[in-house]
Amino acid sequence: MAMQTEVEAGLDIEPPTKIDLVGSVGDAEISSPPAAAERASLKAAPPLEPMRTNDPDQAPEGATVFTTPNVRNVRDKLFSTYFAVFTAGLNDAAFGTLIPFLLPAYDVGLLQIAIVYLINFVGWLIAAFTNVHVTSRIGQGGVLVFGGLCQVLAFSLMLWKPPFPLFAASFFLTGLGAAYQDAQANTFAANVENAYFWLGMLHAAYGLGVLIAPLIATTIAARTPHWNYYYCVMLGVAAINVALLGYTFRHALFRPASKEARETAGTELKQALRRKEVWILSAFFLLYVGAETTAGGMTLRIPQTELL
User: Fold this and answer.
1) Measured distance CA(98)–CA(103) in Å, rounded
2) Is 50 left (phi over 0), alpha (psi -120 to 50) or beta?
3) How far apart are alpha carbons 163 and 101 in whole angstroms?
């Protein structure tokens, strides 16, 4: 023991500062677990979140990247979607102006006029539940063009002053077409650079249509015996709308964005319907937009009622 102590004292041996337990059993390699600090850093690392960038090379490895198109590259599509909602505004704001001329022309009352608003609502409702399925089959451009064609057909019926049941039924097509275009236009504007600005401009385009529609409709109905000629104007505008949408979205017309879109459409709709935020916002817009549109049209009839 004394000799062993002397040998150890004569050797300059540093004690190990780190023990790396690595061995092998057969072909398998066994290593020690990471140190406590390393384990803590792994737990503290946040999960990779989807990020929006125009330079995918700057994204962390494994992150989901959504590339936003430059406005200069899609300004023709932006303009066509603006024109689509402008057309919807021209249609929505004109009907209330024409009510005083519709009542004697068809010999109907306000109850029948209210049914027209209900038929229009049914078109919007059906579009809300079918939009994702239609988009998965014919793509964004296809849905926009299809909505425009629905409006063209509706205005073609209104133009020649058909019987009132057919005139009222045509509002189902205007609601369906406007709803499809409204959903796609908002989705498109929300996915470009500086989306808040372009979404605001989109709704401003709708407001512009709402602003000038009563002026045009009142001028035609008051100065000519044919109030229905307003829908001749609308037919021309709707035809231009279809042409613009078809041209600007021609490269992806009637083609879905992905092959899996049709298979996942039902799942995406179910997921959306399970979110309470969707139902809360839907209830808000049902009451707000419904009251706004209906009251904006029906109040034009008040000065002609027996209440005055």
Assistant:
1) 9
2) beta
3) 15
Give CB contacts under 8 A, 24+ apart, made by 164-167: 164/106, 164/108, 164/112, 167/106
Burial class (CB in 10 A: 0-12, 13-18, 19+), 291: exposed
Distance of CA 60 to the CA centre of its chain: 29
The interaxial angle of helices 261-273 and 110-159, nearest 10 deg, is: 160
- For residues 94 and 261, give the distance between their C-alpha atoms in angstroms, rounded to a whole number: 37
Tell me the C-alpha distance between 193 and 45, whole Å.
29
Average pLDDT over residues 66-76: 74
Q: To 10 degrees, what angle do helices 276-298 and 110-159 make?
A: 90
- Sign of the torsion angle spanned by Cα atoms 244, 249, 255, 259: negative
Over the stretch 11-31, which tens digit does the pLDDT of each residue have? Answer: 444 554 444 444 444 444 444
Q: Tell whether the model's pLDDT for residue 5 goes beyond 60.
A: no
Task: Look up the pTM and report it.
Answer: 0.73
Please report the DSSP string for the chain in residue order: -HHHHHHHHHS--PPPS-----EEETTEEE-PPPPHHHHHHHHHSPPPPPEE-S-GGGSPTT--EEPPPPHHHHHHHHHHHHHHHHHHHHHHHHHHHHHHHHHHHHT--HHHHHHHHHHHHHHHHHHHHHHHHHHHHHHHHHHHHHHHHHHHHHHHHHHT---HHHHHHHHHHHHHHHHHHHHHHHHHHTTSTTHHHHHHHHHHHHHHHHHHHHHHHHHHHHHSS-GGGHHHHHHHHHHHHHHHHHHHTGGGTT--S-TTHHHHHHHHHHHHHT-HHHHHHHHHHHHHHHHHHHHHHHGGGGGGSTT-
Specify whether the CB–CB gap between 132 and 268 falls below 8 A.
yes
Cα distance between residue 96 and residue 107, in whole Å: 16
Distance separating alpha carbons of residues 61 and 11, to the nearest angstrom: 50
